[in-house]
Each structure stands twice: as structure tokens, then as C-alpha cells.
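User: quick one - fold this with protoporphyrin IX containing FE bound?
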Amino acid sequence: MTASSLLTVDHDARHVSLDVRDPAFYRDPNQVYAALHAMAPTFYWKEQRQWYFTGYDHVNALLRDRRFGRQILHIATREELGIPAPLPHTRHFDAAEAWSLLELEPPEHTRLRTMVNRAFVSRHVEKMKPEIAALSHQLIDRFERDGETELLSSYADVIPVTMIARMIGIPEEMGPQLLKWSHAYVRMYMFARTEADEHAADQAAEEFSYYLRGMIAERRASPRDDLLSHMIHTEHKGQYLTEEELISTAIVLLNAGHEATVHQIGNSVKTILDSGLSPKTLFGDATATERTVEECLRIGAPVHIFERYALESVEVDGIPFQRGDKVGLILAAANLDPKKFSDPLAFKPERNEGPNLSFGAGIHFCIGAPLARLELNIALPILFERLPGLKLAGQPVVKDVYHFHGLDRLDLSW
Ligand code: HEM
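Assistant: Sure. C-alpha cells for the protein plus protoporphyrin IX containing FE:
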């Protein structure tokens, strides 16, 4: 089946029909993005009932455009815009999201981001290098002699949650519980979520918040050298973060802090093995490693879409938007724009054609990008070095969700 056969395109109206539940799409969205670049880079997605952008310049500009925002309720009411009332069965989730950096706009966003950034910078991400390397080696020690492993559960799932939990100051034995909460929580961001997903996410938010309240009380009483203590005690213009802000921030850091990185590790290993290129060359030195990691991020981004509201009437690429209209920015597709990247579907770490947009841009640019990049630049080369002859031991299983793009299983042998 060709990618274009998954799409029904009305060229004049720029309307596209595309089923997100079709495995042929979510297993290999890049092929569809290539077809969209050729046929309708800016399009109205009928099933989602809103406009989407795939062009690199459009996505890059819209992420930075202050006429668009992540939030709209700071300048308009639900009634005015016809936004449905909050659901009673997602109230714990909504409370946890209320102060998420991702959901705020200036001036609130600026205040919170400045304070979180201060606490974050004081943790010196670079200093975590030896810890990430040691953890990667320990995990490989456990399965090296088996000659095979399922990499998501034995490696990719463990490194990001362990590092972010350590950084925040949450005991490591909470790792498995954090993963459960986080998996349930992030289903709220998926296309085509069900009511059962909403109930599960709400329960996760309630339990997660309750747990964090206890941690915050402990750290208030006896601060340690961890991110949570720093966030509690960071002051900006005489202000401190409130309890609700601390909880939202800790949750967004924990969720964003590992979910995307897990998938990026899995996607990267698959990309590298599929490419047939030699790991010795790909990870020859720090510069080669960095280029390999960036090319993996470009071609195998873990989170494909972020949305924005038009905060005022504005026209983009000939499409008029009214205040309150939502637009979808397909970062993963922007990374494949043939106007920006030559032979965009090819994995070419040596390309030097500008930055990928996998971490976003503008005021919401991923605050964890330095940590995620560090983890990838350490965990990937160690894996390939320790296990020469690494190869796929089965067809990788792609998660049946859009717009997170990751694997359920990655069976490897050596
Ligand atoms: C490969 C891994 C990662 C990817 C691809 C990724 C991607 C992104 C993207 C695209 C955004 C911007 C969203 C928008 O513009 O609406 C974002 C924001 C964010 N990310 Fe990441 N992220 C990753 C890892 C991390 C890590 C490790 C952390 C935490 C330590 C983190 C924490 C955050 C937070 C808190 C925000 C919100 C920032 C704000 O709104 O000001 N992310 N991330």
C-alpha cells in the first residue's frame, strides 16, 4: 500500500481525510508526511476538524508566533468560544495540569519557567554524565550474557525515569510506580482517547499529586540537594512557587522527562539498525555521536504534534484563523520538509542542514532538551559498543497510538 493511498486529498480546498487508527499510517507516518509535503503541506484534517501545518518554515514560525498560544482561557471564556465545560471525572487531572508549564502563557509562563529554570540549572545536567553512563552499563550487565533482550523494558524505559526521579529527588524504588502513573496520565494527550483512558488518567493524577504533597512537606521540613528542594526554596522577586505549582511542575517534568526520551531511545536504535550503517562510524567520536543523535531525532521524533490557539484574528498561508481556533503543528513532518532537508526520508547523520524541531521552538522550547540529549549521547553509543553485532530479533512493534510515535517492543540479539 502506498502512503498516498491512505490519504484522500481535495487539492483545491486543501482538505485531507486520514484515519489515525490505520496501522499503515501510525506504523510509518513518515511516508504519509512525505505525501502531504507533495500534495498539501498545509491542510484541513477532516477527522480532526482543524488545520495542520507540516512545512518547516511554518511550524518553526508558528511555534514562535506570539499571536498563537498554548492557552486561550486567559483571554476568553469557555462560553465565548464554545469550549465544553471541564469533565467532572477529570478534575484531578485538570488540577494537575492547571500549572503545567506546557499549558501556560505569559506572564504566568514566564514567571514559572524562570523559577523552574533556576532550580534546573542549579542541578547542572552535565554533572549527570557519569551517572547516566554507570546506569547504562549496569543495565547492560544484566542482559549481556543472554544474547538477546527486549530493549524497551530492559534499557530504554529505565534510564530516563531513573535519571529524572534522581534529579527531582524521588526515591528510585518509586520508578515502576512512576511509570504506571505516567503511562496512564499521558493517554490524555493521545488522539482518540476513550472515557476509560480519562478515568485512568484522573486516578493517576490524584495518586501522583497526593504522593507529591507528602514529598513536598518532607522537603520543606528538611531540604536536600535535589530539584524539588530547589524549586521549593527558589525565590523570584519575593515570590515562591505555590504547592499547586510545585505539584504541576513535578508531574510535567516526570512525565515529559521520561516518556518522550524512552521512545526516542527505541526509535533511534531501530533507525540505526535499519540504516545498516556501522555503529563504529556513527559513534566514532563525540561529534559523530552528536550528529547521529540529532539525525535520529529528526527522522524518528517521539512526539509528533503540538497544538496552538489563535489568540487573535490572523492569516497564515492563506488560511484565516479567528481567536480561539486551534491549529496543529506537526513537528515530525516539519523535520522531513524537502524544502529544508535534502532526501528527507534518508538517514544521513553527516547532513548539516539546520536544526530539527523535535524539541519545539520559542517560549515553550523543551526545558529538558539538554538532559534528553545527554541521555541519548551517552546511552546509545554505550549500547552499541558493549553489544557488537546488535541486530533486530523480530519485527519491532510500533505502539498503536498517534501522535506519540514509539515502540511497544524492540527485540534484539547479538
Ligand atoms: C527526546 C526527548 C524529548 C522530546 C522530543 C521533547 C519534546 C518537547 C517539545 C516539542 C516541547 C514543546 C511543546 C510545545 O511547544 O508546545 C517540550 C516541552 C517541554 N519538555 Fe520536553 N521533550 C523531551 C524530553 C524532556 C525531558 C527529559 C524533560 C524534563 C526533564 C522535558 C520537559 C519538558 C517541559 C517541562 C516542557 C514544557 C516547557 C514549556 O512549556 O515552557 N522534556 N518538550
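One thing worth noting: Residues 398 and 407 are 4 Å apart (CA to CA).
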